[in-house]
Amino acid sequence: MPAQKILIYPHPVLKKMCRPVPAIDDEIASLVADLLDTMREGPGSVGVAAPQIGVSLRVCVVDVSASRLGKENNHGQLVMINPEIVARQGTAVMREGCMSVPDYTGEVERATEITVRFLDGAGHPGEIEASGFEAVAIQHEMDHLDGVLFLDRIVSLKTGLFRRKNYK
């Protein structure tokens, strides 16, 4: 499947709550393939959520293994359908960016450890404990499923929002 066009804020789909996936079928398999291709081709991307490509379903993908921040602590490529955070611990402020908000980055407070339940791409239930950068990336992508952008979570609009110098 080819990489899909990323919707840019303020596109209205980015602010909508996504519907749960009722069943894993060929349409969902195709969506997952599109998300994975889009993530791989995105500049510095470690995740993509379905609404970013115009689909209001609770599906996202995350893979921080190629990032210097996530290289040592990750679960590899994650396909998460109907994900739910069931536990959170700790907090830290970290700089985030988003392909849907290409001109800015911002400082966002996130849990440092999370437990997430989800269905994988084959419809099998999964549960992982994620920490550090991987936990942040998962929370960021799951926010997209609730119509929340990192801009909504900036710790301080005066000091926590930054114009991106370059985006490659």
UniProtKB/TrEMBL annotation:
<keyword id="KW-0479">Metal-binding</keyword>
<protein>
    <recommendedName>
        <fullName>Peptide deformylase</fullName>
        <ecNumber>3.5.1.88</ecNumber>
    </recommendedName>
</protein>
<keyword id="KW-0378">Hydrolase</keyword>
<keyword id="KW-0408">Iron</keyword>
<keyword id="KW-0648">Protein biosynthesis</keyword>
<dbReference type="GO" id="GO:0042586">
    <property type="term" value="F:peptide deformylase activity"/>
</dbReference>
<feature type="binding site">
    <location>
        <position position="140"/>
    </location>
    <ligand>
        <name>Fe cation</name>
    </ligand>
</feature>
<comment type="function">
    <text>Removes the formyl group from the N-terminal Met of newly synthesized proteins. Requires at least a dipeptide for an efficient rate of reaction. N-terminal L-methionine is a prerequisite for activity but the enzyme has broad specificity at other positions.</text>
</comment>
<feature type="active site">
    <location>
        <position position="141"/>
    </location>
</feature>
<dbReference type="InterPro" id="IPR023635">
    <property type="entry name" value="Peptide_deformylase"/>
</dbReference>
<comment type="similarity">
    <text>Belongs to the polypeptide deformylase family.</text>
</comment>
<feature type="binding site">
    <location>
        <position position="98"/>
    </location>
    <ligand>
        <name>Fe cation</name>
    </ligand>
</feature>
<dbReference type="Pfam" id="PF01327">
    <property type="entry name" value="Pep_deformylase"/>
</dbReference>
<dbReference type="InterPro" id="IPR036821">
    <property type="entry name" value="Peptide_deformylase_sf"/>
</dbReference>
<feature type="binding site">
    <location>
        <position position="144"/>
    </location>
    <ligand>
        <name>Fe cation</name>
    </ligand>
</feature>
